[in-house]
């Protein structure tokens, strides 16, 4: 994988060798955002080469027993499920990057900056399968579960600590990916052929699956994709900007 960056030496020269004030931040923002076209061109390949889209297994789990009011009785319900075949992450694209803060070494002119990258909203989907059981007096039921989870809009922000070396032009000498923040849009859970008379059971499992999707997706991005992206970035350092 090769990153291609776009910036001009004239723009790099506008960055002052003093305290990182508004003009310094603006110049850094211009330099960094000038690289995004090249970075975005490489993201789909990186995601698919890492086998993150489709992602075969997202989560396997079960719910603890919980009382559910079925109207005619209160049942003890529990469920087991597997979330699989996550698709959509290959469409991730960085919308813009913002320098949150920067420190300049007055002797060398090098910069250390905290940068936040905002990802364009994406839509993703995954399948699920499993079962749900309920016990209500002498009535014991077990239903198979199959369906789909769709997230209409997933907003992702990624923070990074970036060190810029100015000894020979302007280059990214080090970049360390830090925290990931996710904002979820509407999450739709669709069941295939599950009896509608058990709506309270549907609400029970829908609530649990929705919560698990949120926690597991953040975990997958943080523990799988972020280290993979960090390794890819490290392999390309230093990255000459101007």
From TrEMBL:
<keyword id="KW-0732">Signal</keyword>
<feature type="signal peptide">
    <location>
        <begin position="1"/>
        <end position="20"/>
    </location>
</feature>
<protein>
    <submittedName>
        <fullName>Uncharacterized protein</fullName>
    </submittedName>
</protein>
